[in-house]
């Protein structure tokens, strides 16, 4: 990874919103009232007395001006990356090599949203996203143990009979740490300052010290109370400025540094990180080394349209009565819940205070994961996920719900289950090539792969005629095959996928013919027409053809891709009942195996 540090930068001043894959880019700046009352944090500031309410914060503050995050397909020639970036006058300023993500700089005054939209049209990339700015989302003998209601609630003292977290390092990605705090100093190990690109991890805000205390405050030292994993080590990684504002890019680089320096658990107490493809890729990198990432659900108090994913464990907040905290965000991305109201923790300068927010429910779960890994070092990341969810105390609606996930974490049950788990994975991944599926190809060919496993796929290798061409270690697995230097003729493509146990699955072979193809595909039919009036549920149908083969059809409504199909037809059931009245644009984009594209746009009305 380049050691160039592109931080800090200015935030965008726009309020436009955009969705990209699983990421909900609900973009808004902090309101003046929030700035006045919220101490500049996305999570509530610690208070000496139980707080009546916690200020609610939007998941995103905006995005970095003049910057994008771009992930090229594995195997894409460097010249092709530069060529694609020239379309938006961009350049790669930083390459996060283990994640194969480029921090792309745009010219002064560039429209980041438009540039991202333009680059997403190029199938040379796995994903392109704005670099979103996020805000921070708080039996032993210690004298203030009685203030720590969350510890007996999650049955931590029972868990301590088997494990205290020793032998496990928990990385706290935050504003730094007061490393000389008397109730933390014994557990601190060296970290890194990603934001300033140096080793100074002193806490510039206070939030990181609050979070660290919840996770791993020392025990039996006649000071304060105890953290959930009081025997674990704390690795401070600063990702934010003095206002506790971080970016998806600093979060991802923090995970990468933690993974390469021995951390098995990473805690990120920040709003909105679950929706980033770049952060998810970084989490996959850590999982490939046997670690897990736990993040805060956020403090908006409302529904967040972030898709669930298997890379991160996202934690909502509950109170002393196992009731969801009113400030806690919710949605399909929530995996678990944990105490997050009025938790006793450490403060900068050697003090203690009570804190509320999902910033503090997240380290409760992170520390529980540390207890589990301390009890059984052979646990795979998927084992940690499964056990935490299976042993949680069910709250709210029976079974999973979007407010509590699978339930409130139970440290004692999780540790007991971890001790009894014997890791033995003999099942190979299932893998196939989704595109191309045959026919003639030319130029730089995008190769889309579908891969799944009972535990998790850690790597995919792409072969042409039995020769390894490229390796992708991060989902979604996707490749680029440069045929421009190949002789015309028939080629056999295949992919091998591996899991953490070394089990290997091989895809069925796909035979293609390399040759020149400059003919664009044809849109044969499109069920929407210019000026059409919409009502109720509208079935949108598209069919397309090509002189060789149609690779992909995508449907874009008001700038958001809502459906894709690999092949010559697409159907999408569009519920227009909630559409705003007025004009809406619908675009069909058809791509063939050679990368030729045909689009058609219509304007319809509600």
Automatic annotation (TrEMBL):
<dbReference type="InterPro" id="IPR017315">
    <property type="entry name" value="Pep_S8A_subtilisin_pbac-2"/>
</dbReference>
<dbReference type="GO" id="GO:0006508">
    <property type="term" value="P:proteolysis"/>
</dbReference>
<feature type="active site" description="Charge relay system">
    <location>
        <position position="207"/>
    </location>
</feature>
<dbReference type="InterPro" id="IPR054399">
    <property type="entry name" value="Fervidolysin-like_N_prodom"/>
</dbReference>
<feature type="active site" description="Charge relay system">
    <location>
        <position position="359"/>
    </location>
</feature>
<dbReference type="Pfam" id="PF22148">
    <property type="entry name" value="Fervidolysin_NPro-like"/>
</dbReference>
<dbReference type="InterPro" id="IPR022398">
    <property type="entry name" value="Peptidase_S8_His-AS"/>
</dbReference>
<dbReference type="InterPro" id="IPR023827">
    <property type="entry name" value="Peptidase_S8_Asp-AS"/>
</dbReference>
<feature type="domain" description="Fervidolysin-like N-terminal prodomain">
    <location>
        <begin position="55"/>
        <end position="130"/>
    </location>
</feature>
<dbReference type="InterPro" id="IPR000209">
    <property type="entry name" value="Peptidase_S8/S53_dom"/>
</dbReference>
<dbReference type="InterPro" id="IPR050131">
    <property type="entry name" value="Peptidase_S8_subtilisin-like"/>
</dbReference>
<feature type="domain" description="Peptidase S8/S53">
    <location>
        <begin position="165"/>
        <end position="407"/>
    </location>
</feature>
<keyword id="KW-0645">Protease</keyword>
<feature type="active site" description="Charge relay system">
    <location>
        <position position="174"/>
    </location>
</feature>
<dbReference type="InterPro" id="IPR036852">
    <property type="entry name" value="Peptidase_S8/S53_dom_sf"/>
</dbReference>
<dbReference type="Pfam" id="PF00082">
    <property type="entry name" value="Peptidase_S8"/>
</dbReference>
<keyword id="KW-0378">Hydrolase</keyword>
<dbReference type="InterPro" id="IPR034054">
    <property type="entry name" value="Pep_S8_PrcA"/>
</dbReference>
<dbReference type="InterPro" id="IPR023828">
    <property type="entry name" value="Peptidase_S8_Ser-AS"/>
</dbReference>
<dbReference type="InterPro" id="IPR015500">
    <property type="entry name" value="Peptidase_S8_subtilisin-rel"/>
</dbReference>
<dbReference type="InterPro" id="IPR013783">
    <property type="entry name" value="Ig-like_fold"/>
</dbReference>
<dbReference type="GO" id="GO:0004252">
    <property type="term" value="F:serine-type endopeptidase activity"/>
</dbReference>
<comment type="similarity">
    <text>Belongs to the peptidase S8 family.</text>
</comment>
<protein>
    <submittedName>
        <fullName>Serine protease, subtilase family</fullName>
    </submittedName>
</protein>
<keyword id="KW-0720">Serine protease</keyword>
<dbReference type="Pfam" id="PF17957">
    <property type="entry name" value="Big_7"/>
</dbReference>
């Amino acid at each position: 990874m380049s050691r160039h540090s592109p931080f800090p930068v200015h935030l965008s001043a726009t309020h436009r919103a955009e969705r990209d894959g699983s990421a909900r880019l609900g973009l808004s700046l902090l309101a003046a009232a929030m700035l006045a009352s919220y101490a500049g944090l996305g999570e509530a500031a610690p208070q000496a007395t139980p707080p009546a309410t916690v200020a609610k914060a939007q998941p995103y503050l905006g995005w970095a001006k003049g910057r994008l995050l771009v992930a090229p397909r594995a195997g894409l020639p460097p010249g092709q990356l530069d060529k694609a970036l020239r379309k938006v006058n961009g350049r790669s300023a930083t390459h996060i090599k283990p994640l194969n993500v480029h921090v792309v700089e745009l010219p002064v005054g560039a429209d980041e949203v438009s540039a991202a939209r333009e680059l997403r049209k190029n199938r040379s990339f796995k994903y392109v996203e704005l670099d979103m700015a996020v805000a921070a989302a708080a039996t032993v003998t210690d004298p203030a143990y009685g203030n720590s209601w969350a510890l007996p609630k999650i049955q931590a003292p029972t868990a301590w009979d088997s494990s205290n977290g020793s032998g496990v390092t928990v990385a706290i990605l935050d504003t730094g740490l007061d490393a000389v705090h008397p109730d933390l100093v014994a557990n601190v190990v060296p970290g890194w300052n990603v934001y300033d690109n140096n080793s100074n991890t002193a806490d510039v805000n206070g939030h990181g010290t609050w979070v660290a205390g919840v996770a791993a405050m020392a025990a039996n030292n006649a000071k304060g109370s105890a953290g959930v994993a009081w025997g674990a080590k704390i690795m401070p990684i600063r990702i934010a400025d003095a206002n506790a504002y971080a970016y998806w890019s600093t979060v991802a680089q923090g995970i990468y540094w933690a993974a390469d320096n021995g951390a098995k658990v990473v805690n990120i107490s920040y709003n909105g990180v679950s929706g980033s493809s770049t952060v998810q890729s970084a989490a996959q990198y850590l999982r490939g080394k046997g670690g897990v990432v736990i993040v805060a659900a956020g403090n908006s108090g409302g529904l967040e349209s972030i898709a669930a994913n298997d890379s991160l464990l996202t934690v909502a907040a509950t109170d002393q009565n196992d009731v969801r905290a009113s400030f806690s965000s919710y949605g399909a991305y929530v995996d678990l819940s944990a105490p997050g109201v009025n938790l006793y923790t450490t403060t900068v300068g050697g003090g203690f205070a009570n804190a509320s927010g999902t910033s503090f429910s997240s380290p409760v779960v992170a520390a529980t994961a540390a207890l589990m890994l301390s009890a059984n070092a052979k646990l795979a990341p998927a084992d940690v996920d499964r056990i935490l969810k299976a042993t949680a105390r069910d709250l709210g609606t029976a079974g999973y719900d979007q407010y509590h996930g699978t339930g409130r974490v139970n440290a004692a049950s999780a540790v007991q289950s971890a001790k009894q788990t014997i890791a033995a994975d003999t099942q190979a991944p299932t893998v196939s090539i989704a595109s191309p599926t045959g026919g003639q190809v030319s130029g730089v060919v995008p190769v889309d792969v579908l891969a799944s496993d009972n535990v998790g796929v850690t790597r995919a290798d792409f072969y042409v005629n039995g020769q390894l061409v490229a390796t992708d270690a991060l989902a979604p697995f996707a490749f680029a095959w440069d045929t421009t230097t190949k002789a015309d003729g028939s080629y056999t493509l295949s992919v091998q996928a591996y899991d953490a146990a070394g089990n290997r699955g091989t895809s069925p072979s796909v035979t293609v013919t390399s040759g020149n193809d400059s003919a664009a595909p044809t849109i044969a039919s499109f069920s929407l027409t210019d000026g059409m009036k919409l009502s109720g549920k509208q079935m949108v149908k598209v069919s397309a053809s090509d002189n060789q083969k149609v690779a992909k059809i995508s449907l874009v409504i008001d700038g958001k891709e809502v459906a894709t199909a690999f092949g010559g037809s697409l159907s999408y059931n569009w519920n227009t009942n909630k559409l705003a009245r007025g004009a809406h644009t619908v675009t069909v984009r058809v791509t063939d195996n050679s990368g030729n594209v045909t689009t058609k746009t219509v304007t319809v009305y509600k």
